[in-house]
Design brief:
The complex is a heterodimer of chains A (about 350) and B (about 90). Chain A is mostly helical. Chain A is about 70% helix and about 0% strand. Classes of the chains: A mainly alpha (about 350), B mainly alpha (about 90).
């Protein structure tokens, strides 16, 4: 069969599929209903949605919270792998590059698990093989006897040069946060380089990256302000957004909240983000601020996907919304497991 | 001399010749009306069709609806056909 590779057709096809998938995500009202359900009812409800296959497959081996958590991770990984298969041309390259963040998460999870002496089965349960490193590769990594061997197994992958340099003198727990920060910085630097390389659709991808970096940097600034631990923001600041790491350092020296927001708002170009920052003048917990920032990011991605309906934006918007659906269901299940009140759980949901 | 003779011959076209020429022009116009609107319909259906296939791949229930949406640009070529028929008859 001839495959149509040129022209707008493959873009329209895949972007429409993403829109339909987005319409199938769990709506806000259902989350509100689930807040009043028990864990078993939530499991049953989830089983009736697009998670049925995973729940049915895993129901014999797991139950309760484990069943929901693993089914959700499997579903997310499968969904992301499937999207990589159906996206055409440069959209596939951009989607793959974006999904590399899951590789970083998986690598760090495996190294942490090994350092804490967790059994391979337990580590496997928390992995989400949604990126370039597939399930078989991650399984081989888990079976490696030591963290050093895990890093060696990454030879040829984008993360290897940085990890081998950082852990030259052996893998130690205290080096992991630094490795995490450096990996994400490198990840964003690679993505920006790719977006600026003249690749088709790179401009739209760069718009998304700027938004993502801005949101991450603002979140980190609020965390630093709340934490007051004296760590240097330069360690976590991601270059490439509208606020430079040096500017972040200067902004963090402002102690008064209102003055901090006054100085921050003019630097931001996104209108909804500026509006949100205005609302943050009143005292809010760091968790509330984080949830608000996520909501703004999703809203802005939705706007971008409407402005550029046949670009990378509808795909990224769906990928992010799917991620937060899983995030919400996990928060609900964990909250119910820990007997938290519905109001408390609601505070953790991105709805 | 030869050019003058040609000019004289051209001005002496018969009624039959003029009628035949008009008929030819009509046929050409009718052909263009159907051909160009056909191309326009094709372009319009390309986008709708690929979106329709995408939507059907995710949700088979929408097949009937998207089929209907896909053929809506057919009206363009039908207009072209009507114009061409009016031209010819």
């Amino acid at each position: 069969m001839t495959e149509v590779k040129a022209g707008p057709v493959p873009y329209i096809y895949v972007c429409t599929r993403m829109r339909v998938r987005k319409s199938k995500l769990i709506p806000r009202e259902e989350y509100l209903r689930m807040l009043n359900m028990g864990l078993s009812e939530i499991t049953r409800f989830v089983e009736e949605t697009q998670y049925k296959k995973e729940i049915d497959e895993l129901a014999t081996a797991f139950h309760g919270i484990d069943l929901i958590e693993i089914a959700l991770s499997w579903n997310l990984a499968k969904e992301y792998q499937n999207i990589q298969k159906i996206t055409p041309g440069t959209l596939k390259d951009l989607t793959r590059a974006y999904l590399r963040r899951w590789d970083i998460q998986n690598i760090l999870t495996i190294i942490r698990g090994k350092l804490h002496g967790e059994r391979p089965g337990k580590i496997k349960e928390v992995l989400v093989p949604a990126g370039e490193l597939d399930k078989a590769f991650l399984d081989r990594m888990i079976e490696e006897p030591s963290p050093e061997r895990i890093i060696e197994s990454l030879k040829g992958k984008a993360e290897y040069p940085l990890l081998s340099r950082l852990f030259e003198g052996g893998v130690r727990e205290e080096l992991l946060p630094k490795a995490e920060n450096e990996l994400y910085k490198q990840f964003y630097a690679d993505l920006i380089e790719m977006a600026r390389s003249g690749i088709k659709g790179g401009r739209q991808f760069l718009d998304y990256l700027t938004l993502d970096i801005d949101i991450t940097n603002i979140r980190n600034m609020f965390r630093f302000r709340a934490d007051q631990s004296g760590d240097d923001i330069m360690n976590v600041a991601i270059p490439g957004g509208t606020i430079s790491p040096q500017m972040m350092q200067r902004l963090l020296q402002i102690k008064d909240r209102n003055e901090f927001i006054d100085a921050l708002v003019p630097l931001i170009k996104t209108r909804v983000l500026r509006e949100l920052l205005e609302t943050l003048r009143e005292e809010k917990s760091i968790r509330e601020i984080e949830i608000d920032l996520i909501k703004v990011q999703i809203a802005e991605m939705e706007t971008m996907s409407k402005l550029h309906p046949f670009s990378i934006h509808p795909i990224l918007a769906y990928l992010e919304m799917k991620k937060y659906e899983i995030f919400n269901l996990r928060a609900l299940a964990r909250g119910k497991e820990s007997n938290l009140s519905p109001d408390r759980i609601r505070g953790y949901l991105v709805i | 001399m030869a050019d003058a003779a040609t000019a004289v011959a051209a001005t002496e076209m018969t009624v039959e010749m003029i009628k035949a020429s008009q008929l030819g022009m009509k046929a050409l116009g009718a052909g263009l009306a159907v051909g160009l609107t056909g191309i326009a319909t094709g372009i319009a259906e390309m986008a709708i069709g690929s979106a329709a296939v995408g939507a059907t791949a995710e949700n088979k229930d929408v097949f009937g609806l998207v089929l209907l949406l896909t053929v809506i640009p057919e009206t363009i070529v039908i207009f072209g056909l009507v114009v061409s028929l009016l031209l010819l008859f």
